[in-house]
Amino acid sequence: MGENRKESRQVKFRVSDDEFERLEQIAKEFQMSVPSFCKRKAQGARMRPPKIDREGAFEIAHQLRAIGNNVNQLSKRANEGKAIPHLELHGIQKELHALWRQFNEAIQK
């Protein structure tokens, strides 16, 4: 057994194929492995699956990075004393508003 592990004990139990498939399905909803999910539940954790799936979270993060890059470019220009066109600021505001609306719709599901 690895010496770097915090936990020194291992618990093993058997489940049927159907039980394992169900555990696997539930664990996937929580974006966890089956052993991690079982451990948390056995310890009495009250868990709710995330309201945004993994792909949705990655898409929102991607969009936020793009908006952040735009803001950084505008900040650099402003720090150089260059004018920032109102339309560019308005465009970023619209992107953020649309992303916020998308996020709120996702968590309402």
From TrEMBL:
InterPro entries to which the protein is assigned, alphabetical? NikA-like
Query: Gene symbol?
Result: mobC
Q: Which Pfam families match?
A: NikA-like
Domain of life assignment = Bacteria
Could you identify this protein by its name? Answer: Plasmid mobilization relaxosome protein MobC
The organism that produces this protein has a lineage beginning with: Bacteria, Bacillati, Bacillota, Bacilli, Bacillales
